[in-house]
Amino acid sequence: MHLPLRTLLSICSSLIALALIGGACSGSDGIGGDGNDLSVLIEAVTPTAIVFDPNDPLQLSGTSIDPSELDFGDCFNEYLFRDASDFLQQVTTVVSCNGPHDREAYFRTEYPGGESASYPINDELERWADITCLEEFEAFVGNDYVLSALEIGAVVPTFEAWTNDGDRAVICYVFPDQGGRLLDSVRNSGI
Question: Is the pLDDT of residue 87 over 80?
Fold first, then answer.
């Protein structure tokens, strides 16, 4: 999912950073916005394999779950594979936060509008999720989004889940903005 706010916020944060701290803190030393050592929380490796062999379930780490069932504090990986019809399929697995993982869910809510509301059009659902996830970010991580080493994403209901199952759940998650994998929970980490 894209975050249109990211570009605007990045530009603003860059200007603020230049005005306040000049070139003294480039972030190239692996230290987070509040002085935390990022290497303790982020492993600079390629995230979970993009493609796996569905005939070898041992390649998957964790317990398979429907992404709409993710909850606050769940750490998870996402895998993709091509099915027999050559369509890309996704598998989400919940894993321990005390080891390498791709993402951590930090907020779960429901899109407002009730059961009778029609599926939002023109990316309204994604924009609402972007704003909601941004509003909840600092309370979870302990750092302002534009100063963080983390990126925001969201799981939103598909048209089918909205229509057939009444799914309105929006799950916000974080992941390293420069790639890599998280090594522990980032709750109150300040990175």
Answer: yes
